[in-house]
Each structure stands twice: as structure tokens, then as C-alpha cells.
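A note on notation is needed here, since sequence and fold are reported together in a single record. The reader may check this reading against the record printed directly beneath this paragraph.
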Amino acid sequence: MEYVRNTWYPVVWSEQIGRELSRHILLGEPIVLYRLENGKVAALQDACPHRLAPLSVGKLKGDTIECGYHGMTFDCSGACVRIPGQEIIPPNALVRSYPVEEKYGLVWVWTGDPEQADPGKLFHLPQYDDKDWHAVQGGTLRIECNYLSLCDNLLDPAHVTFVHTTTLGTPAGATVPVNNDYEDNAITVWRWIRKGPVIPLFEKYGKLKGNVDRWHYYNYTPPCFFCIDMGSAEAGAIEDTEKRHEGVQMYACHVLTPVDERTVLQHWFHVRNFRIDDHSIDAQMNADLEMAFTEDKVILEKIQLEEERSQSQKRIILAIDGAPRKMRKMVDRLIAAEANE
């Protein structure tokens, strides 16, 4: 499977990387992560060039890794600095090193041309560091499906009514069409549901009652990064849709790690503008959100199995498929552009 490579992918939460060797699979390729003595994170190809023994089963010595098979030792740039029993180190005795950044509590790895590894291209949400908002680290779901299938799901407000009945949806959204806005490198799928019942999540934590006006804006940037702007306000209170911050508003962010062609990691966190000083609700809100995302996991894994079993079966296309189809074409275009570089 081909992937977009000139981008930053999240791999793991920063708090999980310390002074030990940690193996991860990204785009079907093994990498080893560890924290240097100066606190920064290093990422290397997790395969010794001698017999392909994983470096992650070796030993960390200072800032170098000693292979657990024959003791070849590599520094954080990937260069071999020691071969037991011989003084000459061949010029091809090296492993690939990857640019690494940390942001939003995650370790991000650049998988393409290291010369293009610009930290300014990292996923960005201005509200994350805004004093009027509260950011809460979430978790990670491992989903046994192709990452593009999860991308389809995260560009699809229509499923919320039927999949997330106890958390994120109500029957009022079933007949409300979605709107799609396309840019060269971004997609937004959105809709407002006027004078409908409040969703369970905002009734529980936003203390809203009765009928409300509520919205979803699914904001996508390729290849697999999502910021879902959702919120509610008293019916009729917000006439200007650009003033959503005046209501109860939350950004649910999903940044994905394609592990291989049938496995994806869904890292998520939320940023909210209500009860920002009440940290007592953070853990329970996370639990409710994870329950909702697990509902997606269940159905996506079943779809993956059916796709593998019935590869020749034709599927129909609905109006709600416009944004997912556009997303896949966008990803294909980026992959093709990299191949022609």
C-alpha cells in the first residue's frame, strides 16, 4: 500500500517514551523510539543492517543503541559507531533516522524527505493553548481496519444519529442534509440542526436542557487529521454561525497513525470552552467519548472483514459519500505528486 510520506504522523503519547527502547510500526515499517539524555526523542529504523535483528531488543547505552545480536552500536543519527571485533566500520553500516517533534502530548515522526520536515506543518489547533479553553488529553484506539476507512467515518456526520445514540446523536439529525466545502488541501463537512433535542454529552456536561440549535463541522487535512467542531446553544441564540464560541463548544481532535494496510491507531483529545476550570469532569468525559469512538471501532472492524471477504461485491454511492470520495482523491493526488518528485 502507498502512503503520503512528506507529513508528520503521530506515533505514541509522549509520556510513554522514556529511557527505554520502544518499538512501533508506522506505514508498515518498524521504528524504535527512545528519549535521549537531553530529553529529546530519537527515532530510528528498527532493524540492524547486519541480520535485521530489531534494535528495540538491544540495549540503550547513553544515547546509543547496542544491537542485541552482535553488539553493533548506533548513535541517534543512525550511524554505526562500534562493531565488536573489527575496527573498520563500513560506510553502509547505518540505519535510517527520522525527524521527530512533540506537540499536543504526542510524539510525531516525519516519514518522508527529511529536508522537508518543517515543524510548521504539524497539526495545529489555536484553541489548544488559549486561556479561555481547556485541553484534555484523550487516549488511543487500535482499530483493525484500513486508515482510509476511519477517515471516511470521520467525514460522515450522517452516521452519528444511528451509531452514537447515547452520546453524540439524537434522532433529530436523521433527515438534515450535510454541506461540503472543499479547498485544495482541506475539507469541511458541516450541518446545523435547529430546534432539536440536546445530545446526551452536552446535556450531561454542558448543562443544556430542552431544544437547542446544534452544529457539527468536520474539518479535515490530509492525509488523516481531523478537528471536529461540535456544540450547542439555546434555540435561536446564535444567528451568526461564525459566533459558535458563544455557545457550548468542543473540538474533538483525531490524529491517525496508519500502522499497516489493515490497522490504524486513533489518537484523540478534546478542547472545550465550558467548565474549563472544572477538571473533575475530564476523566468521565473522556470515558464517554471513548465509548462513542469504540462504537465506531466495532462497526469499522466488521466492515474491514466484509471488504476482505467480498472484494468483488459492488457498493452503491450516496449523497453523503461526496466528502469521503473527495478525501481519497486528495490522498491519491498527494501520493502521486511525491512519486513524481
